[in-house]
Design brief:
By secondary structure, the chain is mainly alpha-helical. Helices cover 59% and strands 6% of the residues. The chain has a two-stranded antiparallel sheet with strand order 1-2. Strands 3-4 form a two-stranded antiparallel ribbon. The protein has a two-stranded antiparallel ribbon with strand order 5-6. A hairpin with a 4-residue loop joins strand 7 and strand 8. The longest helix is centred in the N-terminal third of the chain and has 27 residues. The chain is globular, with a radius of gyration of 22 Å. It starts with 6 loop residues before the first helix and ends in a 9-residue tail after the last helix.
């Protein structure tokens, strides 16, 4: 007569079988979801379906865009995340217009709508509240407004890159002239995001992106200032241990002692691809050297010199098993730009394992987009990153 397992052991086996089934199903789901990754043509359907989802969520009223952001983060960050979502979506659409020329006309119209949302009084309120003046009605003042103005200028450059007309050219000139004047009047060519706070280097780099894009799209009047900033960055603002561009600076340009963040370092690499390709490549290789983590979940650590199994950061997101969600997403941009296909594929696999793609009617999106839509927009911009056309 065959022996039978006692009930407690049968329950353990049943539980183990259920867990094994879940793991197998997840593995199959990830495998199916990442099929075709590696070429823009192979990913076209998925990229356009993700584009469709984001446009459905973002091409609405400014109030609705702000309300898409988590209420728990407060009104300032709701405004920031709404603006970042629109700017990253604009970058993704400019990329899509170059990768798939048949989508160019649609991309131009959609970027136009996003610019109007970011220019709305409702969305600029978060910046106005911090500076006690409206960013677009105070271009002749001495207040910074750096982040808002830079992102708006970058979005206009996205519109022009996608094939848009000259309707925003006057504003584009005004924004860049204002940013440049305020940079030159600052102690070290840097502008604060908000009063009383340090210089956030990734935010400052958006100003460099805007001025650099203006240089090749309009004229090169700002190139000498861009070169001056880059010289300081390479000689004064890199970490002595790692060689990586600092995350934070004082107003006078002296580096803060705060640690370098993986999320900031990865975002710096992405923005530098618009400004100085060689410097971007150097920083990207250093990012991989000091912050890359390989394994089941390949990605970018938030801290290179210590472990953090679980933590929370407003910029990085929930840090789990050392990995920075934002840093990992931003790294996809540089990996794509530099053709680092193996690392890019691993990063997209991590995004799928953690994010879990939901398929709708002509749309795809990560489940996590229901909590942080900005992450969906960032990831689409990063995975479509391609060199923007510049004159020879």
């Amino acid at each position: 007569m065959a022996r039978r397992l006692k009930k407690p052991y049968r329950n353990i086996l049943k539980t183990a079988a259920v867990i094994a089934l879940i793991v197998i199903l997840k593995w199959l789901w990830v495998t199916i979801s990442t099929m075709g990754h590696g070429t823009f043509e192979g990913e076209k359907t998925e990229i356009l379906r993700r584009r469709n989802y984001l446009t459905n969520q973002l091409l609405v009223s400014p109030e609705e865009v702000i309300n898409e952001m988590p209420e728990a983060i407060g009104s300032q960050f709701q405004g920031e995340w709404a603006m970042y979502s629109c700017s990253m979506m604009s970058a993704a659409l400019a990329n899509i217009s170059m990768l798939y020329p048949d989508e160019k006309e649609k991309s131009v119209g959609q970027i136009d709508s996003l610019i109007k949302i970011v220019m709305s009084p409702e969305l600029r309120q978060f910046d106005a509240a911090r500076w006690d003046e409206d960013p677009l009605e105070s271009l002749d003042s001495d207040q910074s407004h750096m982040s808002y103005l830079s992102i708006l200028a970058w979005m206009i450059s996205s519109y022009k890159t996608a094939g848009g007309n000259d309707k925003y050219d006057e504003l584009y000139h005004q924004l860049c002239a204002t940013l440049h004047r305020r940079m030159k009047e600052s102690p070290a060519l840097n502008l604060p995001t908000y009063p009383g706070e340090p210089i956030y280097v990734p935010d400052m780099l958006v100003t460099l992106v805007a001025l650099s894009n203006f240089t090749w799209q309009c004229d090169d009047r700002y190139q000498s200032t861009i070169n001056e900033w880059l010289k300081k960055a390479k000689t004064e603002w890199t970490d002595k241990k790692t060689g990586i561009l600092k995350s934070f600076l004082n107003d006078d340009g002296t580096p803060l002692s705060d640690p370098i963040k993986g999320s900031y370092a990865a975002l710096n690499c992405y923005y530098l691809t618009f400004v100085d390709k060689d410097f971007a490549k150097e920083q990207y290789e250093l990012l991989k050297k000091h912050f890359m983590q390989r394994g089941l979940l390949t990605g970018i650590r938030e801290y290179y010199d210590r472990s953090c199994w679980f933590g929370m950061d407003i910029d990085a997101g929930p840090i789990i098993f050392n990995l920075s969600p934002s840093g990992t997403a931003f790294a996809i941009g540089s990996a794509t730009y530099f053709g680092d296909t193996d690392f890019r594929s691993s990063l997209l696999t991590t995004a799928e394992i953690v994010g879990s793609t939901i398929r709708g009617c002509n749309t795809n999106h990560y489940l996590l987009a229901n909590l942080a839509l900005v992450g969906e927009a960032i990831t689409l911009a990063m995975r479509t990153t391609t060199p923007w056309h510049r004159p020879n």
